[in-house]
Amino acid sequence: MKAAEQRQKKGEGGAIAAWSDGLIGHSAALNVLNRALESGRLAHAYLLVGPEGAGKVTVARKFASMLLGVSAPETHPDFTFVERERDAKTGKPHAAILLDQVQALTNRLSLAPMMGGWRVAILDGAQLLNKESANALLKTLEEPHPKTMLLLTATSAEEVMATIRSRCQLLRFHRVATAEITVALRARGTEHDHAELYARLADGRPGAAISFAEKSSHLDDMFAMRDAILSMPSSAVAERFMAIEKAIPPKLPFQDAIDRSRDWLDLAAELLRDAMLIKLGAEGRIVHVDARERLAAWANQCDPAAVLAVLEESRRLLSANVSPRAALERVVASF
User: Fold this and answer.
1) pLDDT, tens digit (0-9, with 9 covering 90-100), for 248-305
2) Do residues 224 and 312 both lie within one domain?
3) Has residue 6 got a pLDDT over 70?
4) Could you give the number of structural domains in the chain?
5) Taking the alpha carbons of 220, 221, 222, 227 in that order, is the dihedral positive or negative?
6) Contact assessment for residue 324 and residue 258, using Cβ atoms and an 8 Å cutoff
7) Looking at the structure, do residues 40 and 15 belong to the same domain, yes or no?
8) What's the CATH number where 281 sits?
9) Is 25 exposed, middle or buried (0-12, 13-18, 19+ CB in 10 A)?
């Protein structure tokens, strides 16, 4: 028996007990994986679903490392990571995970593991599989090779093709309590007041909180987008449209524009929810505590519930490949 397999089977005190050390939250999903490990009944494919920044890829990497018996999966020859690529000539992102990427993946998964243990692959962004690439993955999901593990991630199960979704065990990653994220940030060396603020601003997403704490540019970008959104109700309509053009420049690649528009809409939804909570007298539950006064004024300048309804419609338009700028302009016109 290989050393990695021996460690995996030790149970308490071994890999099963230790692989998730250091992860923030998601105890329900981790318990599902641990019970499957202990019983020896791992599924051949898992679909990890949750908001961006929740930690899905982090969990997938840690799980892959445990199965392969290494500290980082990239160091192992039986590990593969697949994500949407950019065009080699233009640098623009492809709209989907392409057929040739999935074919290369399935070819690797069809081979016997080089090291005699597991062969593990992570596919980040299963919602980005198009019809051709999804169909290419189906045979591997329907007829998996022994000791092969496929870990897919997605922001929403509903956005993943039903044929793919139905052949994976679903693991939902819910938002993590602010207090738990705060404790984890402090353990990583973040000063207490900053840790609490970053945890609140992350709105239950540990990865986002760590990004705010360790990459100041990410926090600055969020603050700049927030300022632009909060300024909308007091700006003339023409100024609002100019702000949208600044957020999504005309020459921005279409998929980048889609991604940035989703970020804009997600942040706008957070701010609208905070404004509604302030109106209801539930200020203790708001996310953007450092902008409380601006949110209170914002709540009096517009009808947050009405704008939120338009925002949800804009999200549906984005999913239907409507122009990102047109989708956002519907929202800003409603302030």
Assistant:
1) 988 888 878 888 998 999 999 999 999 999 989 998 899 999 999 999 998 888 888 8
2) yes
3) no
4) 3
5) positive
6) yes
7) yes
8) 1.20.272
9) buried
- Of 172, 197, 225, the last residue of a domain is 172
Instruction: Return d(Cα 108, Cα 119) in angstroms, integer.
Output: 9
How many other CB atoms are there within 10 angstroms of residue 294's CB atom?
Answer: 17
Q: Cα(first)–Cα(last) distance of the chain, in Å?
A: 64
Tokens of 195: 């840790």
Where helices occur in the chain by DSSP H, the ranges are 3-9, 15-18, 27-39, 56-68, 99-109, 131-142, 162-165, 178-187, 192-202, 206-214, 216-230, 237-247, 254-279, 292-301, 304-319, 324-332
Cα–Cα separations (whole angstroms), residue 138 to 106, 164, 306: 10, 7, 42
pTM score, whole prediction: 0.84
CA–CA separation, 261 vs 244, rounded Å? Answer: 9
Helices 206-214 and 178-187: crossing angle in degrees, nearest 10, is 40
- Containing domain of residue 187, as a range? 178-214
